[in-house]
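note to self: the first set is below, dont mix up w the second
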Amino acid sequence: MGATQLPRLWSCCVRQLEGGSRTGTQRACQQASCEALSALLRQRGLRMNQRIPIDTPLAKWVDALSSPSTYAGHTIESPPTVRVYQQTASTQDIARQYRGGWFVALADEQTAGRGRLGRAWVAPQGSAVLMSMRWPCLNADRSLDTLAYRVAVAAAETAQRFLKDTDHEVRIKWPNDILVDGRKLAGILIERGDDAAIIGIGLNVSLAEPDLAGLPEELAGHITSLAMLSRPTDRLAVAAELIARCHRCLSSPHDKLLLDEWRCRSTLGYEARFHSAGEDITGTVIDLDPELGLIVRRDSGEIVYLPAATTTVLP
């Protein structure tokens, strides 16, 4: 039995367990259809929660993501210009330097990936969709908050698409996290370019528990991936879905509908602490204003608006 048979066997095993836990997966592998996979994994010195090579080779990504047929069922007549890198410092920098229209850069690995407020974004090679999108026609006076909630909805919809028929709950944690069952599946970074928004998204696909070794326990315990949720998936399929969902949400004229979806996936009415404009703010989260940011009522009764680009959620 060769390595090319691993993905088929793994998919067979997972289909029997839709939505099951890793413990359930290991029990199910006692069944006839999964015994071969379990034995082969042991023979190769692998564990059930390690990454299985089911990805489409990177060399095929550009053609696939540049083809309108890839987005069948979505309203994309002209796909973006796409570039894919084995390794790069940051896809954000590549997207920022591009001159033209709608553009997407993806990488198998980043050596200097970043998140909000200059924080590092680290993902093992081949474990995530690491994508930056140049979205043109951003007016200089337009707030990035008008895009942030739309991108969050797109990323949450993408996660839900690959977790359908499960009990996993996909939520949006303002300003930039996508959580599944309370653990971070994806993060978002939106920066301003010369005449466009530079939208970075990292979504964990085949990240496995051994990849978290060495991380502080308080951090490792808050990270998840599609594979860790028993949904091993081809990263190309995730990238295509993410691009299509971003296009839909960013180009939609239906602000209220998207805002309602953001509200449905977010938690409102809770008390939290923030740091914004040089001060710490404690209050109750009320709602989101697409232009001004998160709406918070301070203990004094004062209403404040917190822009996503410059606000940190405090523990």
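second set (the one i keep forgetting abt)
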Amino acid sequence: MGGRGSGPGEYSGITDTEMISNKLYVFDFLQYRTTVYSTDSLQIIRAENVRPPVNQEKYEEIRGWGRSLLLLRSDGTYLAEFVERLPDHRVESPTYNLEKDRPHKYFFMNEDSKITSNKIFETSRPHVDLVAKVNGRYLSNIRPFPLLVDLL
């Protein structure tokens, strides 16, 4: 099952797995893709890229905002985070904003990329951003766990 890469059954950044019935759901947050395996055969049943929400414009409070992250839920749907401004971790940049409050709003989203709820909750700083300059490049965490990912 799997390995590093972007093809079927390959992953760049697994963040969530869920067992639902006789299926194993694996979410790759770097590729925005969910792969579903049969637990009987460990064969891929389907792999789907999770598109941006098809009905986001219906929700005025996040109209024009960016989808930041997805968390796989135990029923195969997602908790989707939306941000008005994406983080800019380049300390020398005039748009650097890691120390500023950036509202994050969370909604449920189904497998068809439709938002299915009103806002569930909102935070202004959901986690502490970590930034390190390594060999002249900025590395930053993009999830609330200590994983540094090259964003440039």
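remember for set 2: Residues 142-152 have pLDDT under 50 and may be disordered.
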